[in-house]
TrEMBL record:
Presence of the UniProt keyword Nucleotide-binding in the record: yes
Name of the protein this chain belongs to: 4-diphosphocytidyl-2-C-methyl-D-erythritol kinase
EC main group: transferase
Keywords carried by this UniProt record: ATP-binding, Kinase, Nucleotide-binding, Transferase
GO function term, MF aspect, one: 4-(cytidine 5'-diphospho)-2-C-methyl-D-erythritol kinase activity
Length: 65
């Protein structure tokens, strides 16, 4: 595989409330969003003919094919 094209769905943030800062430096968030029918197209292409593209992920909600 020398290139891979993926669609990344868009979302509309209806509100975002930034809460307390956690010990790890990040903040807790409260948010509500809705998916909409727009998307970005992501194209990944290898930089040489001899290399290949591999995407690995163990999370069940991330498409890898």
């Amino acid at each position: 595989m020398d290139s891979l094209v993926l669609k990344s769905p868009a979302k509309l943030n209806l509100f975002l409330n930034i809460l307390k800062k956690r010990p790890d430096g990040f903040h807790d968030l409260e948010t509500l969003f809705e998916r909409i029918s727009l998307f970005d197209t992501i194209r990944i292409k290898s930089i040489s003919a001899s290399s290949k593209i591999q995407i690995k992920c163990s999370h069940p909600h991330v498409p890898i094919g």
